[in-house]
Amino acid sequence: MNSGIVCKALEPFGTTIFTEMNALCSEAGAVNLSQGFPDFEGPDSIKECAAKAILRGPNQYAPSQGIPSLREAISGKVKRFYGVDVDPESEVTVTAGATEAISSALLGLLEPGDEVILFEPCYDLYPPMVARAGARAVYVPLERPGFSLPEGRLKQAFGSKTRLVIINNPLNPLGKVFTREELDFIGKLCTEHNVIALSDEVYEHIVYDGRVHVPLFQVPSLKDRSIVVSSTAKTFSMTGWKVGYSIAPPGLTKAVRMAHQFLTFCTPSALQEAMAMAMAMEDSYFEELARSYTKKRNMLSSALEAIGFQVLWPEGTYYTSISIKGSGFEDDMEFCRYLTREVGVAAIPCSYFWNGRRGGRDLVRFCFCKKDETLEAAIERLERWRS
Ligand SMILES: Cc1ncc(COP(=O)(O)O)c(C=O)c1O
């Protein structure tokens, strides 16, 4: 239907799998464990702060790079959790979610003909935006069984046209947390080939079992050539607010801001003010976030295991995945359609995180950023089906 109307770069990507599964889920009245948004609210204190800011005003455009108090709060949080100094004036940019930070970085940096290395599985925003920027995606699949970094293949992927490598850490959909050694290896190649690394770290505060999240600006070889993107969406359970940000050295920040000013110009000022307050919340808030998601991860993953699935327990993020090998289904989309319509639980087929769905057809992702009663209802339906 879109033929000839949608631009050639975007047309092949169609409608995102998240929109498709959400629609299927409402049509079937299923429990929605597909798209990653909480069915509970973030802290009231954040909402009250935004409400007060709206009533008090002004409700006009914010400075394009973000209001000073939020940029300072981001810099303060980075210092508190990672011990790194970032200059709020020249290194922090507030955007409309991580989505816009990533899009701005790609549009602000890439030239037609550049190559961008993407790891598969890869979040579905990156390939279309790389294509729209006129660049070519070079895919490097993470290595099974543990989805580790394929050092040889990665080395081969770097060439004279490589401009950027994108890392998603912790990784959606499989919950991999990149180790310091893996990031050092990527850093070494980026330095050798004069390449920029962009890291999408929206799940930075959701890591499990004592693992430590390593932001790219902590990797010595990448300090001057990395753009770290994060968001308040997952950390404060406010996905609808779309307040995200990028942290990068001044030169790279200039490129991000160049595109950002023409994409959205700025992010709603009242929401920024509330997030400035949220960023300064005590350590206990962040600890409780990880603790509560650990309980939810354990609850859903053990239930899936008990009903006979092989579970890929996540090291981070709020997704857990299963292998559908031996379930009677050959294809993850077919499995998800059946599960939504017949069992009443919606999930995400992981093959949509591979280029052309050429991998991951045996994997299905469930999100567990849900109230316990929602997870219980899903588990009950799955148990009834399997028994
Ligand atoms: C890996 C990843 N990056 C970016 C986003 C989007 O973040 P935001 O809502 O801040 O744009 C998501 C949301 O699910 C995500 O999983």
Structure description:
This protein is of the alpha/beta class and 387 residues long. The longest helix is centred in the C-terminal third of the chain and has 24 residues, at 283-306. The termini are far apart. The chain has 13 helices and 13 strands. It has a seven-stranded mixed beta sheet, with helices on both faces. It has a four-stranded antiparallel beta sheet with strand order 9-10-13-12. A two-stranded parallel sheet has the order 1-11. It has two domains: 11-42 and 284-386, Aspartate Aminotransferase, domain 1, CATH 3.90.1150; 44-281, Aspartate Aminotransferase, domain 2, CATH 3.40.640.10. Helix content is 42%, strand content 15%. The protein has helices spanning 17-28, 44-56, 68-82, 97-109, 126-132, 151-157, 180-193, 232-235, 250-263, 269-279, 283-306, 332-343, 372-386, and strands at residues 31-32, 92-96, 115-120, 136-141, 162-168, 196-200, 226-231, 243-247, 310-312, 319-323, 345-346, 348-349, 363-367. The chain binds pyridoxal-5'-phosphate.
Order of SSEs: HEHHEHEHEHEHEEHEHHHEEHEEEH
The largest sheet, given as strand count, sense and whether it forms a barrel, is: 7 strands, mixed
User: Which class best fits the helix and strand makeup?
Assistant: alpha/beta
Estimate the mean pLDDT confidence: 97
Strand content: 15-25%
The name of the CATH architecture of the largest domain is 3-Layer(aba) Sandwich
CATH class of the largest domain: Alpha Beta
Name the CATH superfamily classification of the largest domain.
Type I PLP-dependent aspartate aminotransferase-like (Major domain)
According to DSSP, the number of beta strands is: 13
User: What integer value in Å does the Rg equal?
Assistant: 20 Å
> What is the count of distinct domains?
2
> Bound compounds, please?
pyridoxal-5'-phosphate
Q: Please report the distance between the alpha carbons of the first and last residues.
A: 43 Å
What is the helical fraction, as a range of percent? Answer: 40-55%
- The tally of helices reads 13
CATH topology of the largest domain: Aspartate Aminotransferase, domain 2
Based on CA inertia axes, which overall geometry fits? Answer: globular
Strands across the major sheet, in which order? 2-8-7-6-5-3-4
Q: Which regions contain 5 or more consecutive residues with pLDDT less than 50?
A: none
